[in-house]
Amino acid sequence: MLVLAPALAVFFGAMADALSQGEAADEAAMRTEVAAWGLTDLALFTEARYTRHPTQADRHAAFQDHPGALEHFPSGALMPPPPLLREPAGP
Amino acid sequence: MNGFARQRYLLDFTVASLMRRPGRNLSLLLVYTLVVFLLASAMLYSQAIKGKAAALLRDSPEVVVQRMEAGRHALMPVSYLERLGRLRGVAHVEGRLWGYYYDPVVAANYTVMAPDRDGALPGQARIGAGIARVRGLAPGDVLSLRGYDGRPHAFTVAEVLPADSELVSADLLLIAPADFRAFFGLPEDVYTDLALAVTNPAEVRQVARKLAERLPDCRPILREEVLRTYESVFDWREGLLLAVLAGAVCAFLIFAWDKATGLSAEERREIGILRAIGWETGDVLRMKLWEGGLISFTAFCLGYGLAHIHVFHAGAPLFAGVMRGWSVLQPHFALTPQVDALQLTTLFLLSVVPYTVVTLVPVWRAATVDPDSIMR
Prior knowledge:
Low-confidence stretches of chain A: none
Distance between the termini of chain B: 32 Å
Radius of gyration of chain A: 21 Å
Order of helices and strands of chain A: HHHH
Mean pLDDT of chain B: 87
Distance between the termini of chain A: 63 Å
Oligomer: heterodimer
Mean pLDDT of chain A: 73
Structural class of chain B: alpha+beta
Strand content of chain A: under 5%
Number of helices of chain A: 4
Structural class of chain A: mainly alpha
Largest sheet of chain B: 6 strands, mixed
Shape of chain B: elongated
């Protein structure tokens, strides 16, 4: 069992860490904001209206039929943002 | 000798046998752990972000009603508010004012909202922490934006929304309804869309059906659809990641198959000696089962534990780009660790069982041959 001990320690450490977490403190604050302002989406991808609010996107517009459709914007793809957007804004 | 003691001695022998070939077994363990780590990281990240979205959005409006015009989202006349209010089963209807503003200064889109119940003061704005960060704003500063007519509109920053709520508010700009209408040139008799609360949550689908019949140009979006959308978005992203990792998993399977099925001459000789000194075929199989089980179980525990650290304590640098995407106003947020029994069992069955089973076939072949012929 000595051989397994480090592996078991890592595994049960992860389990204990996960089980010891209740509702995160930030979640309560965010749920209050969601309820108060009627928010419907996460602010994850803000570059286009249908990526910022995928649940509210137009039903008939191209590429917006379902969330798995191809995206115009690379928010879900494997490409990085263009250099222009990574540079800090000028004065 | 009872069964338990027998298994313990077999396990001791197996560990000693593994230690005799440390290079071979450690390299196998390392690669195995890496594969479990990659798969577990993708699964844990996806599960955690889906859980977060579901936890946060369960208080979003029960039904959002959009008016459609020529297949596009159109503004909602105030008269619809009254018509929907009369619908049986509707407890409360509220008009929502929201839109987008592209800020060329930082090349970012803001979500501009004017919550009715908030009592926001004209000329003042509450901004998300993302906007405050990219524009370098603090309470008391003035934010000047070009309105629909090209004229600048100045808003005094009354508050920067808490940084720990960035996941829902990083790009929010909250202003008073009158300011919103002046900024976007919206007449008084329209809203962006409507939010409904229903009397009995179990009847939400019936209410949505009645609504679509009464107002055929409107489209109801239920809360369950909102939650399903995020489930689907992250399932897709997880699938994308797993598709990329499939090559690595296949390479590992070939590697493991080769290691597990190709017994070395030394191992054959060991099996022959064990058989010659009186071990039964079943004992040899059990010993090899322990060997495969030990390696795969150790790799599973290490891989899962390291994936947990990678995702929840190191910010998942390997996968965050794919799972979260990118944007100028990228929110900062932490994921909450969760234990999902189904996910854990799936990973365990996929990682431990195949390798353990695959080791048995060549051993059974070697163990059933005459010991004398193996040792020659």
